[in-house]
């Protein structure tokens, strides 16, 4: 089930720009859930899964 967030796209973009400028992450609490907005500059880079090493038990 998809439900709209109580946050417009413009508001989210403004918060992300502010977070990027300050080098931080924005957390918004909606009910009992927490939504975390992480700027791309702070996001973890994707890493490949290393399946070249075989572990024998």
Fold and architecture overview:
The protein is α+β, with helices and mostly antiparallel strands. It has a domain at 7-41. Helix content is 25%, strand content 18%. The chain contains one helix and two strands; from the N terminus they run αββ. It has one helix spanning 9-22, and strands at 26-30, 33-37. A two-stranded antiparallel sheet has the order 1-2. It is elongated and about 50 Å long. The model has no long low-confidence stretch (mean pLDDT 82).
Blueprint of the fold:
Blueprint: H1 9-22, E1 26-30, E2 33-37
Antiparallel strand pairs: 1-2
Write a brief caption for the model.
The protein is α+β, with helices and mostly antiparallel strands and 57 residues long.
Relevant terms:
57 residues, alpha+beta, 1 helix, 2 strands
Number of helices: 1
The level of helicity is: 10-25%
- Silhouette: elongated
Sheet-strand content, in percent, reads 15-25%
Structural class: alpha+beta
Mean pLDDT value: 82
């Amino acid at each position: 089930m998809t439900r709209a967030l109580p946050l417009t796209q413009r508001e989210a973009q403004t918060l992300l720009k502010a977070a990027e400028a300050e080098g931080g992450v924005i957390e918004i609490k909606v009910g009992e859930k927490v939504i975390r907005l992480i700027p791309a500059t702070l996001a973890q880079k994707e890493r490949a899964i290393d399946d070249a090493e075989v572990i024998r038990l």
